[in-house]
Structures are given as C-alpha cells and as structure tokens.
Amino acid sequence: MLTKGDKIAHYTIESKLGAGGMGEVYLAKDERLHRNVALKVILERGEIVGSDASPRVVQDASARLVREARAAASLTHPNVVSMFDVGEHEGRVYLAMEYVVGKTLREMMRQNTIGWPKRVRWLTDVARALAAASLADELAGRLSTRIFRRKASLPNACSQASMAAGICSGE
User: Fold this and answer.
1) For residue 98, which of 44, 22, 33 has the smallest C-alpha distance?
2) What is the pTM of this model?
3) CA 171, CA 129: separation in Å to the nearest integer?
4) Beta-bridge partner residues of 52
5) Which residue has the higher pLDDT, 142 or 36?
C-alpha cells in the first residue's frame, strides 16, 4: 500500500481513492504538469488478495491494465475519463487518468432525494459512453469494448458536479 508522499514515476501520492482485488487507485499529483490524476497501480505479489498469487497472476493483471489504458486512450468522449499515461515504476505497472471530482453513480443512486429523471439521464450518459466505445472498436476493428463493459459497473461510474455521468476506471 502506498501512502501520502510516496512516488510512482513523476506522480506523488496524495490519498487512496479505492481498491480492488488486483490494484489500488490513488489521488496523485502529476509533478510534470502540476495537475491531479487518478493513479491506478497494480499491487505487488504479496499484497494481492489471497497473497499466494503467482508472478503469472501479477503479469496478467499488469497486461490487462495496459490493454485497458490503450482501449481507453483510443476513445475521446465526454462520458469517459481521459487516459494520460501508462508505465512501470520499480516493477509496478501504473495508469494515470483524469481525476473526476464527484461521487460514484452507486453513491448517487442511493440518495433518495434524487428524482427519476436525473437518474435516467445518468444512466443514459453511461450508455452513450458504451455506445461510443463500441463504435470506436468497430471502426478500428478491435474487440476491446468488453473492457468498457466490464468497467461499466456502478462503482466505476461517476458523476461530476456538472451532473454528467460517465465511466471512470476505478476499482
């Protein structure tokens, strides 16, 4: 686990945003461009859930993260976070992406004060992002849309202050 002040390449960790079975997402400062990013980092072998994970498991997770970055980088859409960088630092693969200030769609949907028209608009935004990913794949002759479909879960959908929802590569 990384802590405030730790460095991954030219990114300085500010705080932890979330975690999954194979990686963690941090709020980090890009020291080159002086902006905040969401930094997704694959865990080291001993940190992975069920710490008996083989080096092959870590390799597979790293390869998936790089494929995810390439697929997302090929897509420019207002409802999909932008990919800024992918790399490796001291054996750890990382992905730097747009940091979206807001709540996850799951958190927003749990609020009883949010009316159905707004909820439908958020889900429509996510559907538009998936449609754009599918079209981009079709035009490029790729089949990486499955990455976006897998990422299009409530924990990975977010809503900005502008109330537009989209796919964030979170957990």
Assistant:
1) 33
2) 0.73
3) 18
4) none
5) 36
